[in-house]
Amino acid sequence: MQHSTLIAPSILSADFARLGEEVRAVDAAGADYIHIDVMDGHFVPNITIGPAVVAALRPHTAKVFDVHLMISPVDLFIADFAKAGADIITVHPEAGAHTHRTIQLIKSLGKKAGISLNPATPVEAVDYLIDDLDLILVMSVNPGFGGQSFIRSQLDKIRALRRRIDESGRQIDLEVDGGINFDTSAAAIEAGADVLVAGTATFTGGADAYAGNIRRLRGA
Ligand SMILES: O=C(CO)C(O)[C@H](O)COP(=O)(O)O
C-alpha cells in the first residue's frame, strides 16, 4: 500500500533565539507538521519547551502542532498544552500509570492522541489502545537529544506497526523520530512510516535550504 510522506521538522534543532522565525521558515518551506519536543529533565535527560512557548509560537503558523511530551507525570500538563495550541498530543506509556486514561483525557479536550514507543518499548504497548489512537510514534533514538544516529532495529518495529495499523482500518499516522536524514528517510518510508520527524536534516544550511531539505526527506 502506497503512503504519502509528511515531513515534521523538530524545532528542537532550530535556532532557539529566533524560534518564531524558524517556525515561519519551515512552514513556508513545505513542512506538514511542526513537531514540538517537550522534555522535563526527569523523564529524559534534557529540558526544552513548556506550554508558554507553545502558545507563543502558535500565531506563527497554522500548521499542525504535533506536541511530543517526554515528561512524567504527564497527565498534570495535558490541559495546559491543549490550551496552548497543540493539535496532536503524544505521550509515552512509561510516563504515567494509566495510559488508557491519559489517551481519553487528550481526546476529551478535542485533541488528537498519540503514543510514543522508545527503542526498547515493544509494539504490544499499542494493544488495547489502537482504537483511540491518531498517531503512533516510533523513537528511532533514545529520546532526549537531537543529532543522534538512527537505530536500525526500529525498522522491524515500524513494519510491525504498519501491519497493525492497516489491519485496524483506522487513519493513524505512523511517525518516526530520531536520526532521520537523507539516507535513513528512505528506509523508514519503505518500512511504512508516513510522518518523518527531522531536526538536524531540516535545519541544515539556513532558511534558504529548508525547502530543498524537506523535498529530499520526502524522497522527491
Ligand atoms: O527529540 C528527539 C529525541 O528526543 C529527536 O530525535 C529530534 O526530535 C530530532 O532530531 P534529529 O533529527 O536531529 O535526530
TrEMBL record:
Listed PROSITE patterns: RIBUL_P_3_EPIMER_1, RIBUL_P_3_EPIMER_2
InterPro entries associated with the record: Aldolase_TIM, Ribul_P_3_epim, Ribul_P_3_epim-like, RibuloseP-bd_barrel
Gene3D superfamilies membership: Aldolase class I (3.20.20.70)
Enzyme active site: 37 (proton acceptor), 177 (proton donor)
Enzyme class, UniProt record, top EC level: isomerase
GO molecular function: D-ribulose-phosphate 3-epimerase activity; metal ion binding
Ligand binding (substrate): 10, 68, 144-147, 177-179, 199-200
Binding site for a divalent metal cation: 35, 37, 68, 177
Similarity comment text for this entry: Belongs to the ribulose-phosphate 3-epimerase family.
Protein's name in the database: Ribulose-phosphate 3-epimerase
Organism: Skermanella aerolata
Name of the coding gene: rpe
